[in-house]
């Protein structure tokens, strides 16, 4: 009996093999802009850019598609990154004062980023405070064999590279002080080292800048001071002029100085020139300055900060100065760092910068410095997804080429410069094959825009932006006039970047998106109950939008909406650019946020739901078909709306009263007086105990009751051509599921294509299902006779998908937060179910039907139900048998916004937000994986990577070993499976309807066996457990 | 001919009066019922305050039904639809307090031969009606009245004593399909386990408190600080507090918890004596404790893994499916050009008057089918179908 103990259901090796071929979990790539970037570096030789983040991640970007990620073991902010030019190595300085050496290694013909070793600067003997040895600046010599570290204490230490061994030739301030003239000393220390710069021509000399203003040109070999520059203003940064004859220093008073370096004068008191560009009023510090010479004219000066403190102290600016040209780039977020891409060839006389790359807190901006007017260059990656907060997302797989081209052309008319050919950062080679199919990711934003992204490959590229705000009257219309006034002012501001976190009106926020990829129709639904039907058009248009209002309360009495008003639509015609153009606007009343929306372009119908009910609208005839209220009579919260403070105030009042009452009663409890009043108090105390807030470590065990608040919220809607009336005639149906476990099924009468205009659609309530456990209905999907999900509208009529089986009996898969259940149609009798919550104690958050294709055979695929739970793990179930297949940990359970943002694709991939600005892409399929495949070829003198066998820790912390190790050991089984699948079988093995016996008959039999085994095993397991727990080992009586 | 039993039924309002129309209608229907089942129905009002004691009420009923001197048993239907006895002042007052405002009293002639008691099941599930309403002989005596076990509704049971170790207890809580709170809280904690390696501390889940008057407290089987080991046969080891909470809530309609009671003194003595009774009686001893013929947890597991839902699932987790019979068969592109909202209104009104479908299995008995349930709002009631009794206020009741 014991041998059964550890055997579990599904241990059949054949099935296990198939599962391995179908499912594999990996987090593949992060899309978007790294959250909280803190450091920037550029390698001009390899043309790679590195960004470090506050969470300790390092990301390397080159040509589009070339991406690498590394993660430090400790989550400390990366404060500086320096490339060892051309070596494919870099050094990172963390917040915790450790220095790490990273290397790009080639493994399996692709490049990875690997940490080699780290270094921590030991404290100087005799000095107690550790801040003295805190590294403030790093200088990597161009020869890449020496690293100089400037510290807070003012010392400069030297390390040998690449071994990171401390050399015994540290330079301390007392040594410098000996050469400083007496009148400059005045008893004060020089302060921390602020800047270290290598002499551009003579690599033995370095420029050391101290915070107090002193700049020293130091000779490393002879260890003596070559020149002294007695600056009197607090120093921020230094930069050499290319010739080495002069350098520029920037200061905390908002000014910069140009200093001449001459061998004749060892001690310079005054600079050649000193400028405060935004003076004369007090200015903020110039944090960093770059000085680039050009062949054609005056040098280019680029600096960040320096704005007049009083009037523009809060702006995030970067100034570009050349002769009379002066542009103040005005960003919406803080400037982290910037660099120029320029000629680094020592033979050339000039820098001739070609581009300026600015890393901001929320986006990356690249300016073309060669074109007149210094325009911005659109980036092919690092897209600021969160330019307005993401409120929803929607993925479209296998986009038809026609729609793809039209979306791209619409996007190009919006932003004509959208080709990435002149992207200046182009190191490495992208080895990933061209994506087989086009994928679109649509993100809905708080400001009412929908952005279309190319999600086919590793880099998420913006394609097209759609704004819905233009059809409403909002307060933001006067923006243009403000911009006009801005042209005249000093400094010459120029708004750059697209990060704009300020929403004009929160009601514009997009809640739900539904697309028909074949007809180019789009439905967008928002926070104020607006549902907008749009049609893709290649022509500019100027038209009126039809507005319809649908009352979802349906004369239910006793409800007063206390939330926001609906958005007033613009009267008159509106001009629309080519792209998606609104045709119909449906406004739900009360104007609560839309919670579900779906579109059937073949039937010209949209369905939408809010917290009050759902509606069905014929957008062809502009005619409401149906409105149904789903409110429970006891539901009062639904009426208060999301912006109302009534709810929270009421709640907090109630709680505080309870607290007072409880404390009063418990205080009196000791004196037992049996009077009527004390009895009342006792009862009150009991009542208070009943519904008082429990302490966080306690959980109350109460079943879901019928009158939970917000029970009427419509959670999902779906259209299907199926059998609802009887088993022989199928027809259009519409399904709606609510928060309280109710499902409504309507039979629709949709006129034929020719009669759309003359005849109206009718809806008739066919079935009403109340799930016993009353958990919110998360999804509804109809399966055909073979257990496959029904195809999308137009897919069959355009020969793009196999026709569904309309002969066999259909079934409906209803997913609630707690259970999955398949009901047969039209009787709606339960067929299979899986009680996830009763088993695992987790709740369903997101669910999707995906198709998984085997790695070993392209012909073999299975449909599966993919489910993300509140614990952040992903479960995969077979459909329609609902048997658990695999389970993976994906998201931290504390990451609620990550779980809420998750969206699955039809091919077993998924996306979720790991920060407001980044999507993590993951794959559940063993076959469909979108991950960076790139190669950076490097030549380095001493290769250290040979003795570093560890796998690269990735930013997301997952190791992708699964697939690789499995591949080899199961080669034998693979062969076996291929032979079993020699004839093409498209059906799932669970349906036996029309499968020939010799191909998958075996599979079916296994399934049945499996099922029978389970019964015994479960029983045995249980007994074993009981016995083991019950009796001391050895006395096993049954 | 003397009928096998006479069942009388009284309805009365507390401080309330029937509306004329509905009263008339009901009366008509009642007449028919009386003929069929030899039953008699009365409806009357009673002041809640001046209700008096049990004896007074007993006599009042005898007067109203004109059966003075006939020895009868009284029962009432409580808010959950359970048939409960009225045989003393206390449960009479309890009955009055449960009137809402209508209270259904069932009066039955005492039959000495028949000894089927008030069942543990609810009124809905009752198979045998009122036949065995039984009362102790000493009722008329002023001495202390002690209810028989069968006068009580089962709320919990101890199960699987024969397969569990002495230190563990498996408790099944019966909710009877109601929304009565289970009434307990759980918390995180540290459990000490003895392993071959020595004493080990592992995280565990414990009962943190019982709600006064709740189901859990009233069973007396669960106590504060009892460690929860399993929920419906699933080990909770390694599961978080929230997971266990969700598991319990999801199983709340039929919750089986295996606990390690904090107080182990109660069971060791008890069990020891039982095992000394001999191996031959071990099985019967076990069954004596487990009144419940509940499916063993092993078979629970079976149903969990097989995923299949048999027709008439033994699991009482059946969803309510309401069908619209008026759905015409699908006619493609009907030519009628009625407005959509009109058709919808029609369909939903048809909906409200339609009996429940057969797919909802409703145990009904002959005596029960004779009872009518007037709806509280006085709307016309159908008495022809016992299934109609499942509906109240036009809302749908789940089974």
From TrEMBL, chain A:
It comes from the Eukaryota. Gene3D superfamilies: YVTN repeat-like/Quinoprotein amine dehydrogenase (2.130.10.10). Residues 726-926 form the Lethal giant larvae (Lgl)-like C-terminal domain. Pfam families: Lgl_C, LLGL. GO terms for biological process: cortical actin cytoskeleton organization; establishment of spindle orientation; exocytosis; Golgi to plasma membrane transport; regulation of establishment or maintenance of cell polarity; regulation of Notch signaling pathway. Its main location: cytoplasm. WD repeats lie at residues 440-454. It is found in: Cytoplasm; Endomembrane system. Residues 944-966 are annotated as: Disordered. InterPro entries: Lethal2_giant, Lgl_C_dom, LLGL2, WD40/YVTN_repeat-like_dom_sf, WD40_repeat_dom_sf, WD40_rpt. PROSITE patterns: WD_REPEATS_2. GO terms for cellular component: cortical actin cytoskeleton; endomembrane system; plasma membrane. The keyword Membrane applies. PANTHER family: LETHAL 2 GIANT LARVAE PROTEIN, LETHAL(2) GIANT LARVAE PROTEIN HOMOLOG 1. This is LLGL scribble cell polarity complex component 1. It comes from Cyprinus carpio carpio.
TrEMBL record, chain B:
The keyword Nuclease does not apply. GO terms for biological process: cell division; centrosome cycle; establishment or maintenance of cell polarity; regulation of cellular localization. Pfam families: PB1, PDZ. Residues 29-110 form the PB1 domain. GO terms for cellular component: apical plasma membrane; bicellular tight junction; cell cortex; nucleus. Residues 170-263 form the PDZ domain. SUPFAM superfamilies: CAD & PB1 domains, PDZ domain-like. It is found in: Cell junction, Tight junction; Cell membrane; Cytoplasm. Residues 259-320, 356-399 are annotated as: Disordered. Keywords: Cell cycle, Cell division, Cell junction, Cell membrane, Cytoplasm, Membrane, Tight junction. CDD domains: PB1_Par6 (cd06403), PDZ_Par6-like (cd06718). This is Par-6 family cell polarity regulator alpha. The lineage of its organism: Eukaryota, Metazoa, Chordata, Craniata, Vertebrata.
């Amino acid at each position: 009996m014991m041998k059964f103990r550890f055997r579990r259901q599904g241990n059949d090796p054949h099935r296990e093999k198939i599962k391995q071929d179908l499912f594999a979990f990996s987090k593949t790539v992060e899309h978007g802009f790294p959250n909280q970037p803190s450091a920037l570096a550029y390698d001009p030789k390899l043309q790679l850019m590195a960004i470090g983040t506050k969470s300790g991640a390092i990301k390397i970007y080159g040509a589009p598609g070339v991406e690498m990620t590394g993660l430090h073991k400790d989550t400390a902010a990366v404060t500086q990154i320096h490339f060892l030019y051309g070596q494919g190595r870099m050094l990172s300085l963390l917040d915790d004062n450790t220095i790490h050496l990273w290397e790009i290694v080639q493994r399996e013909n692709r490049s990875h980023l690997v940490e080699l070793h780290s270094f921590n600067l030991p404290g100087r003997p005799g000095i107690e405070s550790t801040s003295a040895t805190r590294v403030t600046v790093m200088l990597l010599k161009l020869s890449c064999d020496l690293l100089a570290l400037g510290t807070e204490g003012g010392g400069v230490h030297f390390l040998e590279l690449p071994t990171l061994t401390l050399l015994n030739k540290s330079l301390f301030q007392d040594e410098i002080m000996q050469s400083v003239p007496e009148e400059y000393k005045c008893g004060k220390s020089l302060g921390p080292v602020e800047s270290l710069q290598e002499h551009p021509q003579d690599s033995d000399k370095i420029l050391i800048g101290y915070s107090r203003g002193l700049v020293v040109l130091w000779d490393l070999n002879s260890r003596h001071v070559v020149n002294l520059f007695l600056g009197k203003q607090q120093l921020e940064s230094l930069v050499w002029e290319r010739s080495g004859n002069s350098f520029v220093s920037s200061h905390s008073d908002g000014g910069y100085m140009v200093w001449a370096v001459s061998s004749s004068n060892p001690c310079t008191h005054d600079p050649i020139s000193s400028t405060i560009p935004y003076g004369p009023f007090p200015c903020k510090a110039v944090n960093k300055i770059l000085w680039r010479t050009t062949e054609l004219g005056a040098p280019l000066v680029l600096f960040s900060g320096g704005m007049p403190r009083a009037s523009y102290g809060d702006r995030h600016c970067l100034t570009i100065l050349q002769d009379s040209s002066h542009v103040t780039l005005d960003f919406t977020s803080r400037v982290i760092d910037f660099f120029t891409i320029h000629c680094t060839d020592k033979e050339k006389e000039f820098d001739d910068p070609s581009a300026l790359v600015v890393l901001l807190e929320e986006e990356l901006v690249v300016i073309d410095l060669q074109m007149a007017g210094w325009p911005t260059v659109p980036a092919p990656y690092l897209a600021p997804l969160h330019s307005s907060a993401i409120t929803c997302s929607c993925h479209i797989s296998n986009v038809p080429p026609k729609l793809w081209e039209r979306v791209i052309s619409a996007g190009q008319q919006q932003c004509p410069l959208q080709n990435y050919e002149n992207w200046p950062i182009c190191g490495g080679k992208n080895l990933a094959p061209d994506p087989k199919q086009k994928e679109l990711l649509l993100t809905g934003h708080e400001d009412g825009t929908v952005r279309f992204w190319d999600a086919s490959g590793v880099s998420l590229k913006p394609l097209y932006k759609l704004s819905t705000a233009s059809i409403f009257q909002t307060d933001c219309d006067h923006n243009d006039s403000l911009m006009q006034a801005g042209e005249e002012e000093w400094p010459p501001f120029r708004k750059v970047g697209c990060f704009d976190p300020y929403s004009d009106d929160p009601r514009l926020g997009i809640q739900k998106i539904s697309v028909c990829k074949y007809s180019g129709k789009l439905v967008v639904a928002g926070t104020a109950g607006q549902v907008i039907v749009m049609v893709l058009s290649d022509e500019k248009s100027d038209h009126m939008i039809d507005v319809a209002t649908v009352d979802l309360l349906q004369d239910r009495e006793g409800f007063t909406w206390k939330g926001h008003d609906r958005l007033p639509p613009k009267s008159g015609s509106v001009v629309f650019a080519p792209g998606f153009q609104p045709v119909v606007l449906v406004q739900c009343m009360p104007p609560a946020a839309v919670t579900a929306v779906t579109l059937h372009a073949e039937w010209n119908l949209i369905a939408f739901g809010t917290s009050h009910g759902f509606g069905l609208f014929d957008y062809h005839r502009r005619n409401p078909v149906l409105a149904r209220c789903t409110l429970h009579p006891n539901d009062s919260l639904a009426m208060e709306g999301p912006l109302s403070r009534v709810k929270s105030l009421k709640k907090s009042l109630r709680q505080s009263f309870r607290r007072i009452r409880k404390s009063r009663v418990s205080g009196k409890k000791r004196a037992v007086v049996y009077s009527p009043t004390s009895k009342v108090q006792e009862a009150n105390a009991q009542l208070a105990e009943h519904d008082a807030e429990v302490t966080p470590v306690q959980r109350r065990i109460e079943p879901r009751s019928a009158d939970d608040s917000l029970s009427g919220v419509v959670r999902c809607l779906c259209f299907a051509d199926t059998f609802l009336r009887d088993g022989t005639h199928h027809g259009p149906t519409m399904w709606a599921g609510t928060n309280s476990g109710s499902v409504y099924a309507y039979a629709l009468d949709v006129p034929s294509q020719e009669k759309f205009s003359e005849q109206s659609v009718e809806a008739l309530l066919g079935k009403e299902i109340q799930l016993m456990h009353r958990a919110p209905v998360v999804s509804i999907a109809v399966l055909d006779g073979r257990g496959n999900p029904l195809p999308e509208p137009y897919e069959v009529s355009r020969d793009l998908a196999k026709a569904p089986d309309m002969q066999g009996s259909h079934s409906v898969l209803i997913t609630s937060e707690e259970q999955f259940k398949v009901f047969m149609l039209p009787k709606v009798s339960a067929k299979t179910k899986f009680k996830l919550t009763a088993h695992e104690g987790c709740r369903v958050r997101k669910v999707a039907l995906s198709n998984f294709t085997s790695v070993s055979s392209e012909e073999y695929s299975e449909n599966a139900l993919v489910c993300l739970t509140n614990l952040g793990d992903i479960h995969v179930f077979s459909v329609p048998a609902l048997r658990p297949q695999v389970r993976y940990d994906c998201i931290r359970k504390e990451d609620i916004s990550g779980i809420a943002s998750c969206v699955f694709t039809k091919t077993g991939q998924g996306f979720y937000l790991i920060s407001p600005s980044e999507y993590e892409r993951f794959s559940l399929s063993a076959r469909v994986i979108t991950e960076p495949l790139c190669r950076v070829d490097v030549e380095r003198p001493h290769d250290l990577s040979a003795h570093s066998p560890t796998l690269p820790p990735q930013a997301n912390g997952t190791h992708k070993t699964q697939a690789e190790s499995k591949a080899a050991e199961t080669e034998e089984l693979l062969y076996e499976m291929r032979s079993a699948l020699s004839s093409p079988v498209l059906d799932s093995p669970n349906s036996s309807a029309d499968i020939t016996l010799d191909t998958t008959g075996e599979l079916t039999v296994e399934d049945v066996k499996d099922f029978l085994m389970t019964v015994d095993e479960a029983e045995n397991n249980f007994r074993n457990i009981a016995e083991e727990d019950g009796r001391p080992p050895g006395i096993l009586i049954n | 001919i003397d009928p096998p039993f006479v069942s009388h039924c009284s309805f009365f309002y507390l401080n309330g009066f029937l509306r004329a129309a509905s009263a008339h209608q009901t009366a008509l229907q009642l007449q028919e019922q009386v003929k069929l089942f030899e039953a008699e129905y009365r409806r009357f009002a009673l002041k809640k305050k001046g209700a008096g004691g049990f004896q007074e009420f007993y006599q009042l009923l005898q007067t109203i039904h004109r059966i003075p001197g006939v020895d009868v048993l009284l029962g009432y239907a409580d808010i959950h639809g359970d048939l409960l006895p009225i045989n003393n002042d206390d449960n009479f007052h309890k009955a009055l307090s449960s009137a809402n405002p209508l209270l259904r009293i069932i009066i039955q002639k005492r039959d000495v031969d028949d000894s089927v008691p008030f069942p543990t099941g609810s009124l809905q599930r009752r198979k045998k009606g009122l036949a065995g309403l039984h009362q102790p002989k000493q009722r008329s005596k002023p001495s202390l009245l002690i209810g028989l076990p069968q006068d009580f509704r089962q709320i919990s049971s101890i199960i699987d004593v024969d397969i569990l170790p002495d230190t563990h207890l498996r408790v099944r809580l019966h909710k009877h399909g109601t929304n009565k709170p289970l009434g307990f809280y759980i918390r995180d904690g540290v459990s000490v386990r003895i392993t071959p390696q020595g004493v080990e501390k592992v995280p565990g889940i414990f009962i943190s408190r019982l709600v006064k008057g709740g189901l859990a407290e009233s069973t007396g089987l669960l106590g504060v600080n009892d460690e929860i080991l399993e929920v419906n046969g699933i080990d909770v080891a390694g599961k978080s507090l929230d997971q266990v909470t969700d598991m319990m809530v999801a199983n709340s309609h039929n919750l089986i918890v295996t606990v390690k009671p904090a107080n182990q003194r109660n069971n060791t003595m008890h069990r020891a004596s039982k095992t000394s009774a001999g191996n031959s009686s071990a099985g019967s001893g076990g069954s004596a404790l487990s009144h419940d013929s509940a499916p063993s947890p092993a078979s629970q597991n079976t149903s969990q893994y097989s995923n299949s839902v048999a027709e008439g699932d033994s699991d009482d987790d059946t969803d309510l499916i309401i069908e619209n019979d008026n759905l015409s068969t699908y006619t493609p592109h009907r030519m009628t050009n009625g407005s959509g909202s009109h058709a919808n209104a029609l369909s939903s009104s048809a909906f409200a008057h339609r009996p429940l479908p057969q797919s909802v299995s409703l145990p009904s008995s002959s005596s029960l089918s004779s009872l009518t349930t007037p709806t509280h709002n006085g709307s016309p009631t159908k008495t022809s179908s016992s299934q109609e009794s499942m509906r109240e206020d036009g809302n749908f009741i789940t089974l």
